[in-house]
Design goal:
Largest sheet of chain A: 6 strands, mixed
Radius of gyration of chain B: 22 Å
Largest interface: A-B, 33 and 27 residues
Number of strands of chain B: 2
Strand content of chain A: 25-35%
Shape of chain A: globular
Number of domains of chain B: 1
CATH superfamily of the largest domain in chain A: P-loop containing nucleotide triphosphate hydrolases
Order of helices and strands of chain A: EEEHEHEHHHEHEHEEHEHEEHEH
Structural class of chain B: mainly alpha
Number of helices of chain A: 11
Oligomer: heterodimer
């Protein structure tokens, strides 16, 4: 059964359609990257999955629940980290852990404290004295101690330095990720998460415009790098995108005959940035 | 720890300055002022002129030339302290009555401060976390919106006054001690008429009923806090003015303004009702308090307040970060 199943989600703010028929399906054990330009509806999609907003239409089912109506039940099995700084600044770390222990049946305080031991976060400190990095470490320690089925990460490493960012994703992979759990990530730092994703969903103008597994991505798409001289012939093969580089041109093909393409240059699997520009850049 | 305990404890931690340290600071200030005034009175040539003229029910104090009967502090000292200094000639009934008036008036500054802290705590309760985005964290916890809102209401209306009650009792005990030392008329007689235990019960019951009486105000503040994206205080004050002004013009009645004034007065200064200045029924003593429980006014207010609270829960569900 899917952990998240969304069909034709719609949500407007005034005249602006934030979600315009958005679809998403997340199976257990997947790490899904939700990737899109600013204002594409990423945040609205995540919020609807977390039960934070009332949709105008569509079918949304997360862990078998209606997120907006059953947020409390949903949150017993869902964890969420947003870009830094949503932990209450006035609270002490140990009091925050007390609180979560009190309200959250699937929170294991010992796991959180063990994770914090490895960091500089002290239990008797107020959260406002913690650095941005420590703030995220604390939130991550809390999240990893929750026995959740779904972990939602919304730009979790925004504003962090490279060391913290690397450690963040290492922790998520090593300490959280299991076969029956799924992770949904949005970030602008596409390169950072590319190697850990199992699935990718491109969102543009409130719609999922491309949704596939990383394996299918490698099967369906290819990137051809060639010199300028054969560019005209390559264009006749209908690439979905073309980009000039210093050496020549890069072409992205979908469902193409790679043997034929190989005659004109070097064939590779496009990375997410290439594909993002090809799929979404062409539409803009 | 249960969900309810965890939620209430969270509220207490967030507001322990306002509901914990502030009444203690008021207590400290009043104790120091009392000591200061007494020292001033005994070291200068000022005369303390206490007359227990029953017909005027008034007390004149003059410290030097200045008649101090205007501000709250001097009112408290006047009613609370200086009337008690010479009670040799008073009958038991008179003494009980004097102490009763005294303890009622010393409660006023504490009650007013508590009410102001409560107003601002309620206005911020569903607004601040939307502004600083921590609402996203709170809503990532398995806690429903009704649990969140009710925990805030119950904490502010019925649990947070505990420190205020303790501070009022402490100040009353302090005054009784001062009078025991400096006053004249029998130590045991004074304390046996002090009614402290009854006072404790009446303050506790008083705050329980005050919470019910103030429910339309508290519920309104919660609702504004859940809805307003900016300046909740301004909305909370301005919006009720419209019906209060229009009603007399359109219907020649003043149910809204009377109701608001009535509820506001007792919510802010429960003990001041004893002064009966606006013809308001006092509700300081247990009998009066229980009578208030039977009043239609109170229960109409509770129903309206419950409506506001329900609306606040609904808006808390819909609204997230600003």
């Amino acid at each position: 059964m899917s952990l998240i199943s969304a069909q034709n989600l719609r949500k407007s703010y005034g005249d602006t359609a934030a979600l315009n028929g958005f679809d998403l399906n997340v199976e257990p054990g997947r790490i899904v990257g939700l990737i899109g330009p600013n204002g594409s509806g990423k945040t609205t999609a995540l919020k609807s999955i977390l039960g934070l907003l009332h949709l105008d239409g569509g079918e949304l089912n997360v862990l078998g629940l209606d997120p907006y109506k059953q947020r409390k039940e949903l949150m017993t099995r869902t964890a969420y980290i947003a870009d830094v700084g949503i932990l209450p600044r006035w609270m002490r770390v140990d009091h925050l852990l007390d609180f979560i222990e009190g309200v959250h049946a699937s929170f294991d305080r010992a796991i959180a404290e063990a994770a914090l031991e490895k960091t500089d976060v002290k239990l008797n400190k107020k959260i406002h004295v913690l650095s941005k990095g420590m703030n995220v470490q604390l939130h991550l320690a809390i999240t990893l101690a929750i026995d959740a089925k779904i972990l939602v990460l919304d730009e979790p490493t925004l504003g962090l330095d490279i060391l913290y960012r690397q450690r963040f994703y290492d922790s998520v992979l090593n300490d959280y990720y299991q076969d029956n759990r799924s992770i949904l990530i949005t970030t602008h730092e596409v390169r950072e998460i590319e190697h850990i994703l199992t699935d990718v969903v491109f969102i543009h103008r409130g719609k999922a415009c491309l949704s596939l597994t990383m394996d299918d991505l490698a099967k369906q798409f290819c990137k051809l790098t060639s010199g300028q001289e054969s560019a005209q012939k390559i264009r006749e093969l209908k690439p979905i995108a073309e980009r000039k580089t210093l050496q020549g041109s890069e072409f992205i093909f979908r469902e193409a005959n790679t043997e034929e393409l190989a005659r004109y240059g070097e064939i590779a699997t496009p990375n997410l940035v290439d594909l993002f520009i090809a799929v979404i850049g062409e539409q803009q | 720890m249960s969900t309810a305990t965890a939620l209430i404890r969270r509220e207490w931690l967030e507001h322990k300055t306002g509901f914990g340290w502030v009444p203690i600071a008021v207590l400290g200030t009043l104790v120091m002022l009392t000591v200061f005034v007494l020292m001033l009175a005994s070291t200068t040539s000022a005369t303390i002129n206490v007359s227990s003229n029953q017909s005027s029910n008034g007390v004149n104090i003059s410290l030097g030339d200045r008649a101090q009967d205007t501000d709250v502090v001097s009112f408290v000292l006047q009613e609370g302290l200086l009337t008690l200094f010479d009670y040799t000639d008073w009958s038991d009934e008179e003494l009980t009555d004097r102490i009763d008036k005294a303890r009622t008036s010393v409660a006023l500054p504490f009650q007013l401060v508590y009410f102001l802290v409560a107003v601002f705590a309620l206005l911020g309760s569903l607004h601040e976390d939307r502004r600083d985005r921590t609402v996203l964290f709170w809503k990532s916890m398995p806690v429903s919106d009704s649990e969140t809102v009710l925990a805030k209401l119950v904490h502010i209306a019925w649990l947070a006054p505990v420190v205020t009650i303790a501070a009022i009792l402490a100040y009353q005990i302090f005054i009784l001690l001062i009078v025991s030392i400096a006053g004249d008329g029998g130590f045991l007689r004074l304390w046996s008429h002090s009614g402290l235990i009854m006072e404790f019960i009446e303050l506790a019951v008083g705050y329980f009923i005050q919470g019910l009486w103030a429910l339309p105000i508290y519920g309104w503040l919660l609702l504004v806090s859940a809805v307003a994206n900016r300046v909740p205080f301004v909305w909370a004050v301005l919006l009720p003015i419209v019906p209060a002004v229009l009603e007399p013009v359109l219907f020649s009645s003043s149910i809204v303004s009377d109701g608001v004034a009535n509820h506001l007065r007792f919510a802010a200064l429960p003990s001041a009702a004893n002064m009966s200045r606006a013809g308001f029924e006092p509700a300081v003593h247990i009998g009066e308090q229980l009578r208030l429980l039977a009043s239609t006014d109170l229960w109409i207010g509770v129903v309206i307040g419950a409506g506001f609270v329900a609306a606040a829960i609904y808006m808390r569900h819909r609204n997230n970060e600003i």
